[in-house]
Structures are given as C-alpha cells and as structure tokens.
Amino acid sequence: MHNAIIRRGSARTASVASVIAVALVAGCDGPAGTPQSLEATSTANATNHTASARLALDPGPAAQLRDSISGARFAAPRGLRLEAEHFDHDEPGQIKHSLTLAGPRGAALSVDIWSNPTRLPLARWFDRHLAFVRDGHAAVDWVPLTRHQVMGMLIERPRTPQAYGQRIALFALGARVIRVSCYDRDEPDALAAFEQVVGTFELEGQP
Prior knowledge:
The protein is mainly beta. It is about 10% helix and about 40% strand.
C-alpha cells in the first residue's frame, strides 16, 4: 500500500490560517515504494468514482492521510477529499484544527481538535465544553478508540425529521481532545469511513 501524504502550502496566520483541499483518487501514487506528495491546492486531477453508494468511494486500498499542522494521521478510503482549517488560538473550549473529509456529494466526516493544556480528564472536559451534545436522545458509551485503543466516548445521535443520525467519537491524546463525527450514520460508506478513521487515528508525537 502506498502512502498519500497531505502537505500544507504557504502559511497564512489569521483567525482561519488556511484551507487545504486535496482530491484523493485511485492511481495517484508514484512508483512502487515512493509516497506521492500531493500539493495542498491541487485539485486539477480530481475525478469521481462510480459506485452504488452515495459517497462513490474507491473500493481499493485505503489512503494514508497526514495533516502536518495538527499532526493528525489516519487512513481513509480513496475518493474522499481532505480539507483543513487551522486557527491561531489555544483556548480550551475553541477548536484549534478542523479537518473535513468530503465525497463527490459533500462532507461526510469531520475531525475537530481542541487544545487541553491542563489535560483535564475527558469526562470533565466533555461536561465543560460539549455537554450539549448529550441531549435526551443521544446514547453514550465508553469504548476503546484509535490505533492505541484509548478509552473514549462513542455518542449515537438518532435520525430526526430535521437531521441525519450521527455517530461521534470523542477521545483525548496527550494535551489534545479529538472529535470525529460521521454526519450520516445510516449511509454505509460514510459509516465505514468513520470506523476506519477512528480505528487508525493517531497524533504525531503522542505515544
């Protein structure tokens, strides 16, 4: 399996530092054993794959994705486009990095990363900053998550007449809290991509 590594272009430090958009398509790798470097602003060769599922994902081997600014690294199905926003603050309750994985018909998953400099335990951090997610309809379980099997929260939000059902994974790695959200848990490709991202997720520099 070849790696597809996302590299960020020139930095712009503002409230939103940058947006990265890269299309991942089958056959984008270089010679065997050589990772293909994808430029952050290059979408000229983007193509859609034909499949029966709504996301139209490539059924081949997963792409290995890396965001060098946040340090996030994970596998995801080919055919998803990675977009990233980076914010120039470190407030514990405000998102520091926001990654989106989108298919031909729109966003399917998001990865949001917060700073947690005091390493507040996850349950207390959740109650302080994201308690609104656990409304009367949401189910919450504690389960092993990520490549390192750290204990985290798996939140199921049922479908309503106004919104798709969501599946959310929340976990802490070092001084960061990470939320991975599947926007439509009833869409098979989106849910499969969610499971792959969560199951392979790691932050560079964290054990």
